């Protein structure tokens, strides 16, 4: 496992745009904020992106096209109840447009993360903790452990 990436993921502010305006933030290994309780209920949820596959910078147009495809995949899943706009904001100022999917099973999120070249994503269930989930296929392919 790349310790530098792990630190970056842990320090990221995972911001979700709320339907009524404003944002709320998720952080690794902390409970879902109260502002999301009514939205997530007891459902599984995930914070995911298609930007910068393999944690390497990609051109803006490539990222946007991939994000649109990810959104379409999430919308096509019958369990997905809602998708909110989101953004990951790193401690050093980088920003990565993301999606907060409610109802999408974790196995689907993991499959999509791998398909879009993501090394990890944030996931949880209901009002529980936000967990960093490594994408095993990509970790193995890149030779990290």
Task: Summarize the entry for a quick read.
With 145 residues, this protein is an alpha+beta fold. It contains 5 helices and 7 strands, in the order αββαβαββαββα.
Query: Mean pLDDT, rounded to whole units?
Result: 92
Uncertain regions spanning at least 5 consecutive residues: 139-145
- Rounded to an integer in angstroms, the radius of gyration calculated over CA atoms is 14 Å
Using DSSP, what is the number of strands? 7
* Largest sheet properties: 7 strands, antiparallel
**Largest sheet, order of strands side by side?**
2-1-4-5-3-6-7
Write down the overall geometry.
globular
- How many helices? 5
The tally of structural domains comes to 1
DSSP helix fraction = 25-40%
Instruction: Quote the beta fraction.
Output: 25-35%
- Summing up helix and strand content along with how strands pair, one would put the structural category as alpha+beta
Order of helices and strands: HEEHEHEEHEEH
- CA distance, first residue to last residue: 5 Å
InterPro entries: DUF3293
Organism: Dyella thiooxydans
Protein name: DUF3293 domain-containing protein
Structure, described:
With 145 residues, this protein is α+β, with helices and mostly antiparallel strands. The chain has one domain (3-141). Helices cover 34% and strands 28% of the residues. The chain is built from 5 helices and 7 strands; from the N terminus they run αββαβαββαββα. The chain has helices spanning 3-11, 34-40, 60-76, 106-115, 136-141, and strands at residues 13-17, 23-26, 44-48, 82-89, 95-102, 120-125, 131-134. It starts with a helix and ends with a helix. InterPro entries: DUF3293. Pfam families: DUF3293 (PF11697). This is DUF3293 domain-containing protein.
């Amino acid at each position: 496992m790349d310790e530098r990436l792990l630190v970056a993921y842990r320090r990221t502010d995972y911001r979700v745009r709320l339907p009524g305006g404003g944002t709320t933030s998720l952080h690794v290994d902390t409970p879902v904020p109260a502002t999301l309780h009514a939205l997530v209920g007891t459902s599984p949820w995930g914070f995911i992106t298609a930007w910068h596959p393999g944690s390497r910078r990609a051109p803006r147009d490539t990222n946007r096209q991939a994000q649109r495809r990810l959104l379409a995949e999430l919308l096509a899943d019958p369990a997905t109840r809602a998708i909110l706009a989101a953004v990951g904001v790193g401690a050093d100022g980088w920003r990565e447009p993301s999606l907060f999917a409610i109802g999408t099973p974790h196995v689907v999120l993991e499959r999509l993360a791998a398909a879009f070249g993501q090394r990890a994503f944030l996931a949880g269930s209901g009002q529980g903790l936000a967990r960093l989930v490594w994408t095993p296929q990509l970790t193995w392919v890149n030779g990290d452990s």
